[in-house]
Amino acid sequence: MDELSEVASAIADPVRREILVMLRHTPLTAGDIAARFAISRPAVSRHLRVLRESGLVRDQQVGRHRRYSLVRSRLDDLTAWLAQFDAQRLDWPQRLAALETEVHRTRRDRGRAASANDQRSARHPKEDTA
After folding, report:
1. I want to staple 34 with a disulfide (CB 3.0 to 4.6 A). Which of 11, 41, 57, 63 is the partner?
2. How far apart are CA 100 and CA 96, in angstroms?
3. 3-class DSSP state for residue 58?
4. R_g of the chain computed on alpha carbons
């Protein structure tokens, strides 16, 4: 199974997705995670094992507790794959480069126009008609 399929399979279950949401801000112990569900602790442990085996979470033994944290980089391939379906997604680097080009072009054109006006003024000084 490739990495994208492995991650997609792991997050197919709503309990596992909820666990990932819980872990996005702070690591939690297995007990903290299990306390937030109405399902049994062994069931939560099985979900945590699937997430750990897919690489989406890592665990660390802290004293008597096992603390889980999210591995965000494992979601990168899935995020990139899903982005191709988001027609509203803005391609900011390309748009900013186009804006920068337009700003340079406008400055260049204004500089040329100002220079041309200066040359015309120098060739035809205003005559004093008074």
Report:
1. 41
2. 6
3. strand
4. 30
| Percent of the chain predicted with pLDDT > 70 | 92
Q: CA torsion sign, 51 to 54 to 58 to 64?
A: positive
Q: Give me the helices (H) in the chain, please.
A: 3-10, 14-23, 30-35, 41-53, 76-83, 92-123
Q: Hey, is 120 helix, strand or coil?
A: helix
Given pLDDT bands bounded at 50, 70 and 90, which one contains residue 130? low
Is beta strand 57-62 parallel, antiparallel or unpaired with respect to 28-29? unpaired
- Residue 62 in 3-state DSSP? strand
Share the mean pLDDT of the chain.
Answer: 89
**pTM score:** 0.66
Q: In what order do the strands lie in the sheet with 65-70?
A: 28-29, 65-70, 57-62
**What is the spatial distance between Cα 28 and Cα 51, in angstroms, rounded to a whole number?**
14
